[in-house]
Amino acid sequence: MKNQNKPTHTAKDSHYAKLRRAHRDAKAAQNASRAEPGKKPGKGPLDPDRSVFLYGLHPVRAALDNPDREIRKMWITKNALNRLDVSDPASLPFDADIVTPQAIDKLLPDDAIHQGVLIDATPLPVPPLNALKDSSIVLVLDQVTDPHNVGAIMRSAVAFDVGAIVTTFRHSPSESGVLAKSASGALELIPYIQVTNLAEAIETLNGLGFETIGLDSEGPKRLEESLSGQRIALVLGAEGKGLRQKTRATVKALARLDMPGAIKSLNVSNAAAISLYAAHAHLSG
Question: Of the candidates 231, 229, 213, which has an alpha carbon nearest to the alpha carbon of residue 162?
């Protein structure tokens, strides 16, 4: 009779218990840099030690399942705890505070749809460009600034098994809650590599054997006619401005997407999805 109230341990509990043991030695260092209670997250200069605040069920679930994501703290409602299928918050390898939705509201911008969960995490590790040598497709973004567009592009990139998304530190969204929410979990599934000089990065991809193709409405050939080889890097520019001149001069080829309708330009995330489909079809041959 006295064992009736003993908690039932699931396989997921065991998984988190292993994570807790693995992170125990690092927990003290993580706690030292934990965000201050009541402080609005997401502010501050970009540096490797800053916090990334992720919210929403899909982004947080993906972060929990990502062994490369180090989480410092969680704020979560009882309802979100059930929806994330975490039966025992104490089994998590980080502090988890059970709070009200209003408590999370106070920590986030007014327009953040958090669905009852917020985590304070460290930025993901970023691989060097040379690590992409075995990838078949890479996406390069030239000053695509809207995190909603980049998030949508990430989802398409993961769907087509893209090796990485390469962009710049400046004029591009950094890792953030808005980006993660727009990507609906895809941020945890694809390397997001930000570089100082995009032209140099494209030259590196050229040297790794990629056919670098810039999407341009005035490109001399259709994209389907420009695809060649077994390693492709598609380069897309911002809406309106398109590719910068230096980028246009660095890629191996410029190509266009031909559209028969009255509208000749697409949102960059839509253009990325169509281009990835064409590239994948070429590689599948």
Answer: 231
Q: Is the pLDDT of residue 19 over 80?
A: no
Report how far apart, in Å, the C-alpha atoms of 87 and of each of 74, 77, 92 are. Answer: 15, 13, 10
Q: CB neighbours (10 Å) of residue 21?
A: 10
Residue 161 to residue 99: CA distance in whole angstroms: 37
pLDDT at 62: 96
pLDDT digit string, tens, across residues 52-99: 999 999 999 999 999 999 999 999 999 999 999 888 888 899 999 999
The answer to whether residues 124 and 175 touch, using CB atoms and an 8 Å cutoff, is: yes
Average pLDDT over residues 260-271: 89
- Rounded CA-CA distance 5/29 in Å is 35
Which residue pairs from 3-11 have beta carbons closer than 8 angstroms and sit at least 24 positions apart in sequence? Answer: 7/87, 7/88, 8/87, 9/88, 10/87
| Contact call for residues 276 and 156 (beta carbons, < 8 A) | yes
Query: What pLDDT does 260 receive?
Result: 87
The C-alpha torsion from 76 through 77 and 80 to 86, rounded to 10°, is 60
Domains of the chain in start order, with CATH, are 11-34+48-121 (3.30.1330), 129-284 (3.40.1280.10)
Is pLDDT above 60 for 123? yes
Is this model's pTM higher than 0.85 or not?
no
Task: For residue 276, give the 3-state DSSP assignment.
Answer: helix
The sign of the CA dihedral 81, 154, 138, 275 is: positive
Q: Which residues pair with 98 in a beta bridge?
A: 76
Q: Is the dihedral of CA 34, 36, 108, 76 positive or negative?
A: positive
Place of tokens 């000053």: 143
